[in-house]
Amino acid sequence: MQSVNVGRSGLRVSDLTLGTMNWGDTVDEIFAEEIMRDFRDAGGTTIDTAYGYGDGAAEQILGDLVAGGDRDDLVLVGKAGISRTTGSRVVDTSRGTLLKQLDASLHRLRTDHLDLWLVHTWADDVPLEETMSALEHAVSTGRARYVGVSNYSGWQLVAAHSILRDARIPLTANEVEYSLVARGPETEVLPAADHVGAGVLAWAPLGGGVLTGKYRRGVPADSRAASGRHTGWAARRLGGTSDSVVDAVATAADGLGASPAQIALSWTRTRPGISSLVVGVRNRTQLRTVLASAETQLPPQIAQALDDVSRVQQV
């Protein structure tokens, strides 16, 4: 893995980030420890989590692992603003809630700061100035080294940047969905991020598993699309024009002697403005495939062919 700067900031991350959304759910403590150990052995430094993942279980597991290692060698990325404690998804980006969730996250993670803290999503019902004031306070009190946002559109990103700039605090990153089957960020998010100097962390770079090719012959029983909680999200990436993209990825994989996942990740990690890919894996086998993408070099003509076939995937 390579170490890269996030946008034009001084924050350095590994170009693959280990996601923990499934920790405490489909990934238990034992598997999490194995996955994190393999990730670290491969040179990975950056781990992404959130207050709402597993109702806090993901942070609790990660905190136990962090406590047993060298915190200074890790880059912890956290998010706040979404919770599921009531059984349904609740978005609250008020200053009070964000700071309360930050303190809870730090307690679970057994650390006194996050290296990068993000507002998990945009909310229309809270003034942006109030939301950004929580980020400013986190930096000024030392609870966050860098701050940013997640799932913000281009104009939302620029508006947030303007408020933080007045406080002399840079907006460092925007974490958004981006892959060969979700290229919408290219329209305005990536240009906006470049304009303000922010880096982009790409979540779901495999399109929820669609780009691995595992759905080409149906929906596996243990897949995301078969899960009641994720059916709607995954279904958006199945069928239609996505099929031609998946076929092109599979063809490229056959020609290069690689897996479709390696091809898809290699394409995404080299896109302009992308600082790191946030990859969630459920076992060591999946992680090995992800790590192998670091050694996968796409010939220019194949990269261009994938670019052409997926260009229609603007969302």
From TrEMBL:
Chain ranges of the NADP-dependent oxidoreductase domain: 16-309
GO CC annotation, single: cytosol
InterPro entries hit by this protein: AKR (IPR020471), AKR_Detox_Biosynth (IPR050523), Aldo/ket_reductase_CS (IPR018170), NAD(P)_OxRdtase_dom_sf (IPR036812), NADP_OxRdtase_dom (IPR023210)
GO molecular function: oxidoreductase activity
Protein name as catalogued: Oxidoreductase
Entries under Gene3D superfamilies matching the protein: NADP-dependent oxidoreductase domain
